[in-house]
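Practice problem: predict the structure.
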Amino acid sequence: MTLKSKKIAVVVPAYNEEKLVGKVFETMPKFVDLIYLVDDASSDNTVAEVKKLIKAEKTKRTHLIVFEKNSGVGAAIVRGYQEGIKDGMDVMAVMAGDAQMDPDNLEDIVMPVVLGEADYVKGNRLFTGEAWQIIPRYRYLGNAFLSLMTKISSGYWHLADSQTGYTAISKETAAAIPLEELFPRYGYPNHILAMLNVYNQRVRDVPIRPIYNIGEKSGIRLWREIPGLTILLTRNFLWRMLNKYVIRDFHPLVFFYFMALLLLGASVPLLVRMILRWIESGNVPPINALTFIFTAITGLQSLFFAMW
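Answer:
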């Protein structure tokens, strides 16, 4: 079974998923031509379990890749993409090894790429009204914050649920972007969106069903990751501005972002001085107040205009 005569591969990054990886293989749709299971140096029996599944598999469509050293989910996905390009796959999807991605959604994920309507497709668990009830609250709120930051960082304002790993990419797009430069760990989905924007790729969200509480154990501590991811997103934003709007094709929006940074930065010491003078004397110097109001309002106007 094929989809529009296109070769479909699925990259399955796995780390300590001996209990759930079997379910991923058992429910994998028949239209998938190749499966790249990339084990990220698991310390449990994931590799042995996968070898057992491969031995029992009649189609022999599963390729096992084992990392000697833990390198991160991003590095595992990149390795799967590289293998897919080498094997001539037309579309490469990603499904995690913890069975949290509904196989019934896979066709919805890959079809826009198969039909040439998008270069990269990602699932969005937040489309469904069930998301607030199903997704743990702290993860939902953390995801919402990171999604907002990723909109600014990547420039794809129409996307949400930035942290989902359920994606599909065309072989042309995977070959066009410098895969080896992508962030190797949890910030991978945020980084690749910024890179896709610089390379002018068409990215689309499709609704998917969130799956939780099936025995999975997440090693991610979201509140611990957010500070590092905020730094990564800021760096991605600056890199995108430089590469897309200065080096590749100059655009005046960089002036507005620069003015916003300058004016809002100047408003901070003005505000501090105004507060200190008020504490000391009970009065606010008029010129100080007027200057602060001017820099703050003009800075915000510049920022919002640049974002628009």
